[in-house]
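Lab notebook, bench 4. Still working through the backlog of constructs that have no structural model yet. Next entry is a single chain of 389 residues. Request: give me the structure tokens for it.
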Amino acid sequence: MERLKQAEDWEKRFKDLEGNPEERERVQKAANAVRELEATSLDDVESTRDKAHLKEVVKGFGEAKNGADGRRAIFPAKMVGKLLGHQGFDYSRVLGKMKDLYEGAVPAFFETEEVKEGHKDHTSNFAGYHHYVNKVTLDGKEYYVRLTVQEPRTRGDKSVADQMHSAHVTDVQIYDTDGGVTSGIIDPTTTGVGVKTDAKLQRFFALASGNAHEFAKALRWATGWERGVDGKWRWEEMEDAVVPDEVYAQMRRDSEAADGDVSSWEGTLGELLGDHAVLEAYPRLRDVRVHLFTGGDTEEADGFYSEALNAIRLSGRDKGELDKGLVHEVQHAIQHIEGFAKGGMPEWGGEDRYHRLGGEVEARNASTRMGWSEEKRRGTLLSESEDVG
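Model written out:
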């Protein structure tokens, strides 16, 4: 649940800024300074994959001092391999001018060093990370470069300089003036290509804007979590939370062997979905019983989640119907586990009332979004795609 903790921490930061006008003004000024930066051209930097050469270049930088806050930093050669491993941009060009970029960058924000699940504990050696932003051009396009400097715990020794840790490059056009992202650029269904955003930079712009809606979108981009209208946290990672191909294939073979009669599969959601991320976010889903039916006289997809039995029953004429129905009913199971608004049945109060039940709106929304690209899902709040009519 590391990402949920991150979401809670960032939300707290947003609320703290609301109550701290001076700090909020500092963040706003920093964001404005970033946007007004004069871009440094990288066109004159030779592109290379020669690690040995780049390490010599980096060693030659010596120590650099940021012009805005005076923080000193050195450039360890070990970061060369890390940056060359990044995708989507020629980071050898950034390495060639990294010292200049750091010295002219805008100090944006600081993050304390914390123990992360699956990582070594560095809290005794490092205090945290200072993030700086500069702007570059390459082949006529503008990019933001977020430079991360690691602050060691010096124990009073002020002669120890910080270390350059990493760099992230993203297209300037991605970020709009309200702190959000321009979804038309990042969604490959509209552009044909997927452009990556820098979630931390997006959060920085959203914090500076003071726009709660855009901050919620930034939070979703970075962590996958957002709050529902009931104030409870929601997490969406339902992509591929579907009936595995091998399970459906076996059901079809069983149906054919029985002269076309109905076939079934029974087990737990954990057995069906394996190590899917949704089971990491909601571990209690693993124990939900699942009964799947297909073949024979099975009509259009039909199903329900039973709280009393903690079980999903689902039938469908083909895999597509089963997949969509499974996402819908898993959402109802999540609603029960987390105490969200629940769904119902049409016969409980008529089709219109059923359609408007909060739980049904949420479950339909999950099914609607399952076919979206990752970029589109992450860039669109759940509340923005709900069909409540």
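Notes after review: The chain has 18 helices and 13 strands. The first helix runs from residue 2 to 18. Flag for follow-up if needed.
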